[in-house]
Amino acid sequence: xxxxxxxxxxxxxxxxxxxxxxxxxxxxxxxxxxxxxxxxxxxxxxxxxxxxxxxxxxxxxxxxxxxxxxxxxxxxxxxxxxxxxxxxxxxxxxxxxxxxxxxxxxxxxxxxxxxxxxxxxxxxxxxxxxxxxxxxxxxxxxxxxxxxxxxxxxxxxxxxxxxxxxxxxxxxxxxxxxxxxxxxxxxxxxxxxxxxxxxxxxxxxxxxxxxxxxxxxxxxxxxxxxxxxxxxxxxxxxxxxxxxxxxxxxxxxxxxxxxxxxxxxxxxxxxxxxxxxxxxxxxxxxxxxxxxxxxxxxxxxxxxxxxxxxxxxxxxxxxxxxxxxxxxxxxxxxxxxxxxxxxxxxxxxxxxxxxxxxxxxxxxxxxxxxxxxxxxxxxxxxxxxxxxxxxxxxxxxxxxxxxxxxxxxxxxxxxxxxxxxxxxxxxxxxxxxxxxxxxxxxxxxxxxxxxxxxxxxxxxxxxxxxxxxxxxxxxxxxxxxxxxxxxxxxxxxxxxxxxxxxxxxxxxxxxxxxxxxxxxxxx
Length: 523
Description:
Elements: H1 5-19, H2 23-28, H3 49-57, H4 60-72, H5 77-92, H6 97-113, H7 123-138, H8 158-167, H9 170-180, H10 184-197, H11 201-217, H12 222-239, H13 244-260, H14 275-287, H15 290-302, H16 307-324, E1 328-330, E2 333-336, H17 344-359, H18 364-382, E3 385-386, E4 389-390, H19 400-404, H20 411-423, H21 427-439, H22 444-457, H23 464-477, H24 484-497, H25 513-520
Antiparallel strand pairs: 1-2, 3-4
Helix pairs in contact: 3-5, 4-7, 5-6, 5-7, 6-7, 6-11, 6-23, 7-25, 8-9, 8-10, 8-12, 9-12, 10-11, 10-12, 10-18, 11-12, 11-17, 13-15, 14-15, 14-16, 15-18, 16-17, 16-18, 16-24, 17-18, 17-23, 20-21, 20-24, 21-24, 22-23, 22-24, 23-24
């Protein structure tokens, strides 16, 4: 049997792990020699390397049967997810649009597995891995992989890292990340300085998904996974050198608000917000400029409001963007009624969810900064214009006229009607039926089970997994008076995405899904 160079590196990695270095640290620093005295040219992952390489190098047309065979032989989904994360990171390094969307779907797909019967648990992950294989082959697999072994900078500070990102120096930025990352939290907090200066949904969601992945892949891989974030931000800075003045103006807003309101506070506020305050803050964010929305949140934090409640209000605002979106038009012609994928409401909700999660684990400064940035993002999205008119309705869905058309009261009938509305791409009816179900106070789980089915079977412009998990988490952390709005938004978005595939611009279910069903012998 042939013994490839990568196989040999994997063996060396195992030895280092046994010696106590840990494969993440050893390979990250380029200390896995292929031969005595030789520095490794490839980033490898010890015992996981064979599986990582399989995912990276196997064509999509051959991958699914191999993975199902391994799963049937006892391969755990957690281990497969860990290998997928490392394979994706090494291949794309956070720089490829389709590559980083696939990475962002990995943790959600693993979480979705726990909501499914055992025989179907692998479906979400297999669908994502089919997509990952497609894009890995498009860029040449291991031949053109982005992440390589690297040597940490001899010294440096998080502020040095920020400057390297500003200059677009990806190599220097990741070396500085390794230098300051004494703990995974250090790595996250340092990476977030670059995110705040290049803020959009992708740069916000990437570090959260990388950090969340550590529970699956192991904390020793923190630098490997967060390298993606600093490279993504540095690349974005490099591409925006023609907009320096605009970017500098944006970057001044956050520090000025932190200084003005004497943030961060040493301890998080504990002041509780009532329902009226929540509605008022939600409305303020939706009707303000970016800087005004940021100031409203900074003021609330300075006044001692609980960051969980502030984040809840921002989440409510992002949710309203999706519930209020109107069709894009060219004159009187509707050119798009898409409320999934890159719709502003989905993007703002995903970004807010990421910042809320990071606020729970980051330092006090980034806790305050992240919530301010999340509010600014929702305000910016609410300010979008199309055809000279606002892109949002005055009243959110469902509208009274649509709700009055829903006659059924029992759960089974309402779920059947929602299934039909989704398959007909009828967003208005889907929102109304979902609302009617909530008004009857039926159990939430059957509703989530239905929507989960479509989150798995549909592509959703690479957002179906992320947005399903965003809604699941925001529903769980939103007070009873407002939480069902999250479900209605998911129902609307699901009706929008049914039958559309970003993957190959075709009609039908997500590529790889039906093959996975056949191999797993499920329907």
